[in-house]
Amino acid sequence: MLRFLIFPVKDFIDKMYFGDFFNSLYLFIRPLIKWFLHRFTNLCELQRLVYGCQDGYRRYKLVERSLNLSKRPQIKHLIYCLDERTSQPMAETHIHPELVTRAVHTVILAKKINPKYHPGFSDQLARCIEAIYGYKRLVTIIDQMRLEPYDSENHVHEHKLKALWHNLMPDVELEARITKQWQEIGFQGDDPSTDFRGMGILGLENLLYFSREYPGTARHLLSHSQHPTYGYTLAVVGINITHMAWRLLKSGIAKSHFYNLSKIHGYPTVEHFHQFYCYLLYEFDHFWMNAKPNNLMEFNNVQVKFEKAIVKVSERENCHFKMNLSVESI
Q: How many CB atoms lie within 10 A of CB 280?
């Protein structure tokens, strides 16, 4: 009954929310809608969203919007502090539990919610805040990795690069650090470090994770990349997919996937981003082979079509990209 009372108007507004005009209209009439629903249900907007939406993307998205649009000084200050905290360069991808607890307490005080009569609200709001700001934290961490350049003098970087070779070519010894052999796994020249300029160490970390966690799949894609007609440069394409994964994360398009992931695993982590990348790379290979391009010059056109397909799926509220392991036995 509660869901029926709350969401006809909000669903209608959501459908109109795509254009600037309807966005402005929604912001104009939003206080009136909130006042009416509060009088009718005796619940604040955050309570209606938490109680009326299933755990996952829809709930987190609407709670995020409600918090960002709040005019209460305490909540505006809270949002400022959380945004500031999650934008700071740090090694941890998680949001500290104490920070989440303080955030929930601030909302409860600002909204005058009595925990005695709403015992489940705090825990459910905490899950929302953890997912929302865990995502923002992840964006900051991934940006840090992207901005860290590959350094051939860095032994850790060099070790990871050699590990990538070993994972993809376990039976072939690498003859030298600078060698044409790198082109066999899809780098452009004799020194692969030059190909990481665009995405920094993130491009290498993605490729290494894929080759380490899904070795059979990675070598299967390598064999596809060496196809006489539809071949492509695996490593370079992989770095392009890193760029795509980063764009989808940074723009917020990937929120549907990561928010739905958060309801299962809690806040999103770097490993979750690597898994998202693996899904994209594996599916791009499938998309490329099905497209049957005449040559590698068609790469940009094929990638644009592939990204549009991913964006379309990301618009679904139940979006959850999951790696297919069916080729691991090959």
A: 24
What does the pLDDT look like over 221-277, one tens digit per residue? Answer: 999 999 988 999 999 999 999 999 999 999 999 999 999 998 888 889 999 999 999
Can you tell me the distance from the alpha carbon of 262 to that of 278, in angstroms, rounded to the nearest whole number?
18
**Encoded tokens for 108:** 């409860």
Q: Which alpha helices (DSSP H) does the chain contain, by range?
A: 2-16, 20-41, 45-52, 57-69, 73-86, 97-111, 121-147, 155-168, 200-213, 215-225, 234-251, 255-265, 270-291, 299-314
Our CA angle for 72, 268, 217, nearest 5°, is: 155
pLDDT in tens, 59-82: 999 999 999 989 999 999 999 999
The two most distant CA atoms of the chain are separated, in Å, by 75
Give the type of residue at 270. V
Tell me how far apart the alpha carbons of residues 277 and 208 are, in angstroms, rounded to a whole number.
11
Contact 243, 281 (CB under 8 A): no
In the 8-state DSSP scheme, what is residue 81? Answer: H
How far is residue 138's CA from residue 248's CA, in Å, rounded to a whole number? Answer: 13
Q: Say if residues 193 and 158 touch (Cβ distance below 8 Å).
A: no
